Amino acid sequence: MAHRVLSGMRPTGKLHFGHYHGVLANWLRLQEEYECFFFVADWHALTTDYANPSNIKDNIREMVIDWLSVGIDPAKVTIFRQSSIKEHAELHVLLSMITPLPWLERNPTYKEQIEAIKEKDLLTFGFLGYPVLQTSDIIIYKASKVPVGIDQAPHLELSREITRRFNHFYGEVFPEPQTLLTAIPKVLGTDGRKMSKSYNNAIFLSDPPAEVEKKILTMMTDTARKRRTDVGSPDLCPFFLTFHNLYSNEETINWVREGCTKALIGCIECKKSVIPKVLAALEPVQKRRKELEADPKMITEILSEGAKKAAKVAQETMTHVREAMGLE
To answer: Which of 59, 88, 201, 226 could in theory staple to 13 by disulfide, Cβ–Cβ 3.0 to 4.6 A?
Structure first.
């Protein structure tokens, strides 16, 4: 069997450049090399948004449109909604019976988010136990590889520990999912922080060209350049680190480096040199988005077909699991 890859995203609505370069560009490569299952993690969205789930349906549609717009191909990969496959929940229950509580309590992300997100009550069983559901998502497809950034590798290690514990009790039912480390480009928002919808600093793939240009022109640069005559450092410039590194060729990058460090060019000149390349890259994506928006049934059909394929695999796995546990 070809290596199977599993990856998912919480439905947060329309996606931005950070999502594209951090996740989707990698998915585009993976779909050419592996058997891929890409899922909408709508149950995971409830771990933080359980009190107001009304936006999840629209967010799913907008997110999947962006997936398809950039080139994720349902003819090559299986795209589905997590909640459509009830076997995820069944396996989650069974894994929760064997997962030691201290494993979950030591999860660094759990502690960090409890501290960071004060406006929501995250002291719930679901939020504490989301790594168990995450493990279920992965191993129910017997995925051998899971693409993650280096900062997410500890999450997958917990999934591997849960998988090992299950296999210890019931036999070698699941392969241990292996980390497929991915280089996540540094994608900064208009204020110089990590691009994020919650920071209100994002440039979206669906933003009209004029809006993209406006956001780029207001993006933070090297704070040492107060005036046009001040010299700057591209390596300290959020705009350079994101847009020139991702979209400019070597000749342009060299021109910017010399012009900035010698104060030969201003920040507006620097930005205007890359805007046409960004807009050219966005043009086919936005054209495809308009086509998909005009055919809302297509998204439903793609998710439905993907769910049928995913369910077949998940059902086979759960038959194996019940037999191994003596529950069949």
So the answer is: 59
